[in-house]
Design a protein that fits this description.
The chain is an all-alpha fold. It has 3 helices and no strands.
């Protein structure tokens, strides 16, 4: 090995991987935003909005889809496609 030649540093992921990763993180954030709210101002009064469709089904599904997108972005290898 010659010491006069500088080694070119490469990123672990390509630009496409980072874009997909940011999309996945945004989907996860939207899922957590959908889960928020539903509290009651008075602790002695029960609020049924805690158990609505948005908080029980939609938000957790959105978060899981976001995790799936981020896992896909990590496992995607654009160099293999070339």
């Amino acid at each position: 090995m010659k010491e006069d030649q500088p080694q070119k540093q490469e990123f672990l992921f390509e630009k496409v991987n980072y874009k997909i990763l940011l999309i996945g993180l945004a989907v996860i954030a939207v899922g957590f935003i959908l889960m928020s709210g539903g509290g009651s101002d008075d602790p002695k009064v029960f609020n049924d909005s805690v158990f609505d469709f948005r908080r029980i089904r939609l938000a957790p599904t959105t978060v899981l889809i976001g995790f799936g997108i981020t896992i896909y972005s990590i496992l995607k290898n654009p160099k293999k496609a070339e």
